[in-house]
Amino acid sequence: MSAKRPKGVNEDQSLRAHLQKLLDWGEAHVTFDAAVKGISTPVRGAVPKGFDHSVWQLVEHLRRAQHDILDFCLNPRYVELSFPKDYWPPEATPPSEAAWKESIAAIRRDREALKKLAEDTAVDLFARIPHGTGQTYLRELLLVADHNAYHVGQVVAVRQALGAWKST
What we know:
The protein is 54% helix and 0% strand. By secondary structure, it is mainly α. α1 (11-24) runs antiparallel to α5 (97-119) and α4 packs antiparallel against α6 (137-161).
């Protein structure tokens, strides 16, 4: 089956718009904002039976990994983190209410920065990242969207296991 592209469609603009929507996670997945909405303090640090991580650990992992990918894309002096030590917090419970709020805010800020990267026509999405080992900007944007969708799903699963999830 061969579909025709509508006249006047700019492939580059279309790809960038699709990437921005993908980074918001709302198309076929629960959004990050919905997944973390209204989580009580005790639920944030609880690890249900059969699970490896608490909601806090998943949220903080999302923050760390997303920031690392953003830093890799933008920073010519990028220094690779050590896996898994630098990507996962050791404690199941957030150290403070402020740490919880800052982690959520940082995820949102970095997501917006990634969307701006996707939108920036000065960035060739198919170009290799100069300080990388063959990665392209497109690969990194797809990687962060895929990684985040997976772990946001885990946040929902942990909440469900704890009886702390109401689908909307």
